[in-house]
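// run 5 | inverse folding | seed 20
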């Protein structure tokens, strides 16, 4: 779990939001269980991915939108790690990847890239 900090696209104020991190191999990802209409997703996209994450210390990051065709294994891992997301994503956490392919375009995934 971490806290995402991103500038609001209309207010200009820093908005904070708790999110579950999904690690896969040497990468970390954030998933929107509420889909493309989640306000934090709109704010991240309006900020061209510029954000901060707080997990102990505050770190500047760039959040890179993952293409839909690369999302299925990330979504599956996310549902296995985040039980609270299961009612929002209409796929069983143990379903084959082909089931996640059907909904991947509806659930944004962002790769966390630390800014040096």
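// decoded
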């Amino acid at each position: 779990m971490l806290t995402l900090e991103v500038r609001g696209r209309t207010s200009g104020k820093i908005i904070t939001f708790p999110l579950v991190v999904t690690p896969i191999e040497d990468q970390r990802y954030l998933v929107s269980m509420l889909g493309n209409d989640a306000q934090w997703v709109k704010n991240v996209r309006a900020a061209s991915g510029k954000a901060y994450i707080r997990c102990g210390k505050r770190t500047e990051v760039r959040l890179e939108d993952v293409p839909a065709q690369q999302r299925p294994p990330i979504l599956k891992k996310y549902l296995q790690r985040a039980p609270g997301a299961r009612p929002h994503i209409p796929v069983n956490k143990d379903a084959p990847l082909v089931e996640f392919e059907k909904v991947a375009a509806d659930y944004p995934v962002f790769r966390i890239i630390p800014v040096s």
